[in-house]
Amino acid sequence: MFFCQENRPKLKEQNPSATVGELAKQLGAAWQSVSVEQKAKFQKAADKDKERYAQAKEEYFSKQSAAIGDDEDEDEDEEDGVSEDED
Predict the structure, then answer these.
(1) What are phi and psi of 81, to 5 degrees?
(2) Where are the domains of the chain?
(3) Nearest 10 degrees: CA dihedral of 55, 61, 63, 67?
């Protein structure tokens, strides 16, 4: 993705009438011709972003779990006939 983000604008400028599919083929061909060293740069960026995403996902789901847990506690109190306002 990072390779495409970096190179797509250049290819689009060189081929303004190219379709999305044509640009994708050109990007694929360009990726195949990239050296191992250059690919490593993009792979490193992808790995870093993957870690960022995993952390963000974990934070999101832990917040969701906490919110669901809070809702369940309120539901249990309401079933007992006790509301938090009455405590």
Answers:
(1) 85, 15
(2) 1-34, 36-78
(3) 180
Mean pLDDT of the chain: 86
Give the containing element (helix H, strand E) for 62. Answer: helix 36-79
The answer, as to whether pTM is greater than 0.70, is: no
Place of tokens 């490593």: 40
In this predicted structure, the answer to whether residue 41 has a pLDDT above a threshold of 90 is yes
Predicted confidence (pLDDT) at residue 73 exceeds the cutoff of 70: no
Residue with token string 């190219």: 18
Structure tokens at 55: 């952390």
Q: What share of the chain is helix, strand, coil (3-state, %, to 5)?
A: 85, 0, 15
Task: Look at residue 31 and tell me whether its pLDDT is greater than 60.
Answer: yes
Tokens, residue 13: 């400028």
**Maximum separation of any 2 CA atoms in the chain, in Å:** 70
Per-residue pLDDT averaged across 21-42, rounded?
A: 95
